Amino acid sequence: MATTTTAVNGVESGSKVALITGITGQDGSYLTELLLSKGYSVHGLIRRSSNFNTQRINHIYIDPHNAHKARMKLHYADLTDASSLRRWIDTIAPDEIYNLAAQSHVAVSFEIPDYTADVVATGSLRLLEALRSHISATGRKGVKYYQAGSSEMFGSTPPPQAEDTPFHPRSPYAASKVAAHWYQEKPDDYVVATEESHTVEEFLEKAFGYVGLNWKDHVEIDKRYFRPTEVDNLKGDSTKARKVLGWKPKVGFEQLVKMMVDEDIELAKREKVLVDAGYMDAQQQP
Q1: Could you read off the pLDDT of 113-139 as tens digits, one per residue?
Q2: Which listed residue (150, 171, 176, 238) is catalytic?
Q3: Which of these, 256, 253, 257, lies nearest to 209 by C-alpha position?
Q4: Same fold, 14-148 and 198-232+250-285
């Protein structure tokens, strides 16, 4: 028996629909690539900004006017605006929701704790409530919700940290992530970790050593950037994810460092072209 599918607005009627908050971040862009490769239609919520902040997804963005090609679409919304969340959930009717958005700079969370909690903690609650109201109004069932956690939630709890390890957050950001976690009635939790620990100094040695430099000649320690409270030792136990999901890390520490350095070198080359052409000041930050 042959099966047929009908394309509506560039999306096959049989494809799943995903809604992603934080789509312009690192995890959001990788998740978008994965879902598109699986045939999903992906919708991302982005905040209005005077600066372009879609660099990570520009390579997969297609003008929505090309309806027969665009399977990723962006919409303006904010986790601090409950009405926008409800409106887009009702409009998009997603099968899966991935909440990756956050004010995720830990040090900055000490300077703007109220805003951090409003976005990370209460924002997650707004999204859950919008989904609950949508399900109540439409009778839809089986909508899946994913809440991104953080190793910062474990804080000062000694390693290894697994799904049943008590939380001991040490920052407004971490405390907000814990709140967002507990807002879910019956979450199934997974710790994803390489089960390795590496210091910042090890990272510097590998990164600078990869290009033949001694990091001590180029790095200064400025105590102004220290956090009021530090997280000393995080080392995840991913036994459950490996057994239940069949997950295991594909990229090791040294390989990851090399990938990051290679990317920065390519970025520096592109910036040099702009500097040489007079389009960018040599001291200008990208």
Answers
A1: 999 999 999 999 999 999 999 999 999
A2: 150
A3: 257
A4: no
The residue written with tokens 């290679």 in the block is 262
Provide the whole-model pTM: 0.87
The amino acid at 93: A
Q: Kindly name the residue from 124, 152, 171, 176 that is annotated as catalytic.
A: 152
The CA distances from residue 188 to 85, 145, 155, 162, 279, in Å, are: 24, 11, 21, 13, 50
User: For 155-206, what is each residue's pLDDT tens digit?
Assistant: 999 999 999 999 999 999 999 999 999 998 877 999 999 999 999 999 999 9
What are the sequence ranges of the domains in the chain? 14-148, 198-232+250-285
What is the Cα–Cα distance from 85 to 83, expressed in whole angstroms? 5
Specify whether domain 14-148 bears CATH 1.10.10.10.
no
Right CATH for 198-232+250-285 from 3.30.1360.120, 3.90.25.10, 3.40.50.1010, 3.40.225.10: 3.90.25.10
152 in active site: yes
Which of 104, 173, 176, 238 does the annotation list as catalytic?
A: 173
